[in-house]
């Protein structure tokens, strides 16, 4: 999977939102140490968590499975725009048939696991889907035989409060391995000066 951070709110926007309450704008150091400490104190320690909602991130996530996608979509306090199988399945129609050991070519479409038999069955499902498309069945119907391992991509926008919740839940050992990997990558993709807001959420990862 690959993750790109398309946009993020500078920390000073959040610290100034907090300073609105006391009208203490003159104390800002433009997103420096003082502002960072203020955000942590008010947003995290004082649990005035709604102030963290002023920090927003937009990521592009590619090469994630549909299994992961449906778990990601459970996080309601986020916005998703997802690549539509309705419009994009035709890319598979023009492929040559897939042999079960042709992992390299199939990896354009499928997320693989560390279980050989699962991966082979995924490739069989991909080949079945390709045959259905070749027969001229519409994408709207053909998509019903997509395997969960089929790759998807999306633009994902989420605020810091919700992202803390996401990282806490999804970096935990109890979460699906692929979404755990995503949570860690998301953390690594966040600008370094924002990461301190998520360190506690990520603790359970190790
Ligand atoms: C290890 C693990 C196993 C899971 N297994 C299952 C499973 O077997 N089946 C299943 O269906 N789901 C499962 N889930 C999904 C889980 O139930 C949540 O839907 C998902 O983690 C999103 O969490 P959330 O509701 O906190 O996030 P969001 O939807 O982003 O919500 C963020 C926060 O906003 C608040 N909030 C949002 N909506 C409401 C609301 N309507 N009312 C009150 N407060 C609200 C809550 O404080 C919530 O924590 C699992 C999750 C994990 C991490």
Walk across the major sheet and give the strand order.
1-2-4-3
Query: Oligomeric state of the chains?
Result: single chain
Query: Unreliable stretches, pLDDT < 50, 5 or more residues?
Result: none
* H and E string: EHHEHEHHHHHEHHH
Q: What is the topology?
A:
Elements: E1 2-8, H1 11-22, H2 33-45, E2 56-65, H3 66-72, E3 79-82, H4 85-88, H5 90-93, H6 103-106, H7 116-134, H8 139-142, E4 151-159, H9 160-170, H10 177-189, H11 199-202
Antiparallel strand pairs: 1-2, 2-4, 3-4
Helix pairs in contact: 1-2
Bound molecules: flavin-adenine dinucleotide (FAD).
Give a short overview:
This protein is an alpha+beta fold and 206 residues long.
Would you write up a description of this structure?
The protein is of the alpha+beta class and 206 residues long. It has 2 domains: 2-64 and 69-79 and 152-205, Gyrase A, domain 2 (2-Layer Sandwich), CATH 3.30.1360.170; 86-150, no CATH class. Helix content is 46%, strand content 15%. It has 11 helices and 4 strands. Strands 1-2-4-3 form a 4-stranded antiparallel β-sheet. The mean pLDDT is 95. The protein binds flavin-adenine dinucleotide (FAD). The site of flavin-adenine dinucleotide (FAD) has 10 residues, from helix 9.
